[in-house]
Amino acid sequence: MKNGKIKVVIPSRLGSNRIKMKGMRLLDGQTLVEHTLGALKMTRHLNDIYINSDSELWQNLADQHDVKFFKRKKELATSQSMIDDYLYDFMTQVPSDYLAVVTPTSPFLKSKSLDEAWEQYASNDYDTLISGEEVQTHCFHNGKAINFSRIGQLPRSQDLEPVIALNFAIAIYDCKKFMSNYENLGWAVFTGSLGFFITEGLANIDIDNEEDFLFAELTSRFLNEPSDTTPKYSKFVQHLIDEGVDTKT
What global pTM score does this model have? Predict the structure, then answer.
């Protein structure tokens, strides 16, 4: 079991391109950063929290919620800046054993999942843990099938090996190994032995563009408004449901 100090970073820069000032955009009356803060503050393990931004406007938000603020260098907050660079900069200035990076683009990620991510990381020999969604469908890359064979009959989707699509809702790093990898090789996000934390359900909503934000708003509205979610069926088959007929084969 891993022991040591854990710092938490919520990254949110001023000049986000696809959605203007994304971290400060309101969803259900709260900024995306505040949704993430709310989940983190209810965790058992991830409580030493920093908002990492190039704009001091974000410090107002940090002060309001009694968390820390780390001013990112302007050159590490452009559209060309790499995650490796600004995380290395943070680690060198705020020493810790481990760093959890929790992105505000996953506003429906709950505290329970955040704790489970840390517990999975702490109980395994990973150097790096990154979250992702399991996608169990027929996948191609550059025209080549990657989780099934084109030769023979089409395999059922439920029999396929799932592909993990990373969403970086949370990533956890061993700081010493991350910094060593960065200093020696110039990169570090995928340092050492790699583990995956699988997110499910609404936690897989990842806001990257306006369409994603609209979907998040509709989801939030649905969650806040009482509604009847009982499955309903066509009148042509409802009698099978009423009679409890097992239609699975």
Answer: 0.92
For residue 135, list its beta bridge partners. Answer: 163
84/155 Cα distance (integer angstroms): 39
Contact criterion met (CB below 8 Å) for 102 and 43: no
* CATH code for the domain of 110: 3.90.550.10
Which residue range(s) make up the domain with 13? 6-132+165-242
Strand-pairing partners, residue 49, are 8
**86-126 residue pLDDT tens:** 999 999 999 999 999 999 999 999 999 999 999 999 999 99
Q: Where are the beta strands (DSSP E) in 92-225?
A: 98-102, 128-135, 140-141, 144-145, 163-174, 194-199
CA 126 to CA 128: how far, in whole Å?
A: 5
Counted domains in the chain: 1
Indicate the DSSP class of residue 147. S
Structure tokens at 42: 């209810």
